[in-house]
Amino acid sequence: MSGRGKQGLAWLRLILFGILLLGGFLASRVLPIGGPSAQGRIVVSLQKTVDGDTAWFTDQAGNEIKVRFIGIDAPESGSAAFFASGLAAATLLEQATRIELEVEPSKPQDRHGRMLAWIWLTMPDGSTLLLQEEMLRSGHAELYRDARGSLHFSRLERLSSR
Q: How many separate helices (H) and strands (E) can be counted in the chain?
């Protein structure tokens, strides 16, 4: 092969490597990679609580994930209960020693691009809580009936009918 042919082949390899590298980077920004547990959950740390049904998390690979807590509806800003609801969610999330997201398989994202997930908390005493259940039980959120048919909706529905 001539010198020009070898140089062209080297450029082609460099371009292909760049495409593969860029593809891997983009996939890591879009897909919640890094830390699935044995149950297929994503281990995360709390970044900030937005309100009683939305928060930002960081996965073990450093990806930021905005999550809507599926199955519940918390008061929106401007309402009297907004602060109390957000504080209740933030307190539970901050007390947890481990936070795991279980992505809703029937609808992984809402129309705003937020991940729809069930939030599993391991508390300091070793107990495991479903955040959505705790928010309903405490009265800081209501059952979000549009989530009917989702993975753990029946658990929430039984709790809210008590």
A: 4, 8
What residue numbers bound the domain in which 12 lies? 1-30
| DSSP string covering 79-100 | STTHHHHHHHHHHHHHH-SEEE
- In this prediction the pTM is 0.76
| Shared domain check, 72 and 19 | no
Give Rg (Cα) of the chain. Answer: 21
16 plus 60 within the same structural domain: no
Whether 71 and 151 share a structural domain: yes
Instruction: Tell me the pLDDT tens digit for each residue of 80-130.
Output: 799 999 999 999 999 999 999 999 999 999 999 999 999 999 999 999 999
Q: Which domain CATH number covers 66?
A: 2.40.50.90
pLDDT in tens, 8-31: 666 556 564 545 444 444 444 444
Do 43 and 100 form a contact (C-beta atoms < 8 A)? Answer: yes
